[in-house]
Amino acid sequence: MKKYRFNRESKSFEEETLTAGRIILTVLKFCLYGILAAAVMYLLFALVFSTDREKKLSLENDYLEQEYDRMSDQADLLDDVIKNLQLRDKSIYNDIFGIDPPSTETFIETDSLTSDAFLASLSDEELAAYSKDEVDRIDERISNVNRQLRAIFQALGDEEFKPASLPSILPVENFKLAQTGASLGMKINPFYKTLRRHGGFDIIAAVGTQVLSTADGVVKKVDKSSKGMGNSVTIDHGNGIQTVYGHLSEIYVHQGQNLRQGEVIARVGMSGTTFSGGLHYEVIRQGRSVEPVNYFFADLSPAVYRDMVVISSYTGQSID
Fold first, then answer.
1. Gap between the Cα atoms of 179 and 204, Å rounded
2. 296 part of a folded domain
């Protein structure tokens, strides 16, 4: 197609001759317009329509967000359990030795260890001052450890302290983790379906299972009843500690009888008000019910003890 342009001098239209440069410029201009139009169409298509892969990726992102929230909740729960275990371990240590447990920082390396590069950068005077400070810090830690060890040995050497007088074993033999029931705290009563304070630890066991005295002591009371705790035995272990064994069937001890740790005192039953066969076990210290699970440290591995604490804490319904 021919093009014409107006010549102002001759006052006439003249045919315009297309040069190679003008042709190339025109072609490039149309290509640029085409590219821009394609880009605009792609953006519009991408905003309005989603490909199958994009839909799949979107679903995966939603699932990962849900999993992250779930795992975050589980991490928070585990953190709470760990903190609870630390508090209980401290309580056990205080109950036995009357002092706080030694800090783990005393026995492990800390993040304050300095790199070789840092030490190499110090002058002789700075290195001497740094070394003195480190020696003083280590001496202080050693003194702290020695002080705590002396307190432990003093408690162990006390004539009134007898390890066997602590209710530190399980009241049934061949205990399995699956036998763990509800522990101390607010639990759902199986009969009334309401929250009530549960004063001890439930051990799920078959009727007729032997019940053991968890520590040396003297039988303080033997009760036989069809209500409440049913047939029960209370043992005084001295130092303000007593244990109670409820819902028994047969009882082999009498009031005033001296007992040794691990001695058979009765058999598991379903006497009293109970939902199923099992043993209701309590530890009373200075007239107050305390968590029995905290005293089983001498009869369980660390892993089983940890799992028992978690299960008993989160079991919402008691057997009585």
1. 5
2. yes
- Assigned domain for 88 exists: no
Could you read off the pLDDT tens digit of each residue along the chain, which spans 320 residues? 566 666 677 667 666 666 677 778 877 888 888 888 888 877 776 666 666 777 777 788 888 788 777 777 777 777 777 777 777 767 766 665 555 665 544 444 444 445 667 777 777 777 777 777 887 888 788 788 778 777 766 766 665 667 788 898 999 998 999 899 999 988 888 887 888 889 999 999 999 999 999 999 999 999 998 888 999 999 999 888 999 999 999 999 999 999 999 999 999 999 998 888 899 999 999 999 999 998 887 788 888 888 888 888 888 888 88
Contact by Cβ (8 Å): 255, 220: yes
Cβ(151)–Cβ(99) below 8 Å:
yes
Q: What sign does the CA torsion over 307, 312, 315, 319 have?
A: positive
Distance, in Å, from the CA atom of 287 to the CA atom of 175, rounded to the nearest integer, reads 28
Q: Which residue has the tokens 């408690």?
A: 155
CB contact at 8 A, 244 and 203: no
Residue 278 belongs to a domain: yes
Assign residue 250 the CATH number of its domain: 2.70.70.10
Residues 225, 203: one domain? Answer: yes
Residues 287 and 172 in one domain: yes
The number of domains in the chain is: 3
Q: How many CA atoms lie within 13 A of 59 on its CB side?
A: 7
The token pair that represents 161 in the structure block? 């302290």
Question: 276 and 190 in one domain?
Answer: yes
Is the CB of residue 298 less than 8 Å from the CB of residue 280?
no
Q: How many whole angstroms separate alpha carbon 83 and alpha carbon 256?
A: 41
One domain for residues 157 and 171: no
Q: Which domain holds residue 134?
A: 104-161
Q: Is 245 left (phi over 0), alpha (psi -120 to 50) or beta?
A: beta
Structure tokens at 178: 């699956």
Two tokens, residue 259: 């007992």
